[in-house]
Amino acid sequence: MEIRKELNNATLFPNLEILANQVVEGFISGIHKSPFHGFSAEFAEHKIYNNGESTKHIDWKLYAKTDKLYTKRYEEETNLRCHMILDNSASMFYPQVKTQTLGNLNKIGFGILAIAALMNVLKKQRDAVGLSVFSDDYHYYTPEKGSERHFQMLLAKLNEIGSEKSGGKETRTYTYIHQIAEKIKRRSLIFLFTDMLQTEKEDEELFEALRHLKYNKHEVVLFHLMDKELEYHFDFDNTPKRFLDVETGEHLDLYADTIKEAYEKGVQEYFTSIKLKCAQYRIKYVEVDIIRDFSTILNTFLVERSKFL
């Protein structure tokens, strides 16, 4: 792939939590009337407090006005468990950009912000979220929890990943997906963010690992991240370039136009095979262009959450 300027050492996003909230609020503002109950944290109505009930949801402001105890009853309170899996391999750091912004992200930056945005929604819903990060090693795992402290810990971890210059040199998806599947015991909604570029095993074995995630009645969504203009359509100007495989070190010197047609045909066939395998194993496949906005991610979450509960 084309070599571009390296990322700087600064944190990817100065305040990931605020930016994730902006992404979610921007999405919500585009929905005139959401058909999905409980998407916001607002309550549906008050009810009179009965002795012996938990005091957790007492509306103390209303008590100060009325001298009566009422509790807030929310539209939907669930115990959804959601586990995010992030591919942190070297290929996910493509394309390399000097400064990442909301409109100029590489694959790892998009994945980090997408997960943070989903965590924002899960937090409002009082749902539990866990996180796994892998590349050539199983870098990080934390089980699903819903506390504020837990959310802040995950945000700190995502920011740490965003400050890295590159990921692991190899993508050992097969090995670590199996390990992650063994760790997630309770039924969960699982989101995998990856570019599906891996060096360890053949595709058939990779999908056996993905099928492992379906055990224990988990629902799995595969978000296939790509820069569609460059990685799918191979849209480069026709000047001599060196294309480098960041995970193997192999390179090719060529003019883009000489292989553009054959390249695009090969990529289309590969993507079609992925979609068919996902359909076979009942894994939700979502193609995501990182140049576009985050509505695809959030819309998919709303649909899958409503089906899961």
UniProtKB/TrEMBL annotation:
InterPro entries: DUF58 (IPR002881), vWFA_dom_sf (IPR036465). The lineage of its organism: Bacteria, Pseudomonadati, Bacteroidota, Flavobacteriia, Flavobacteriales. Residues 47-268 form the DUF58 domain. Gene3D superfamilies: von Willebrand factor, type A domain. This is DUF58 domain-containing protein. Pfam families: DUF58 (PF01882).
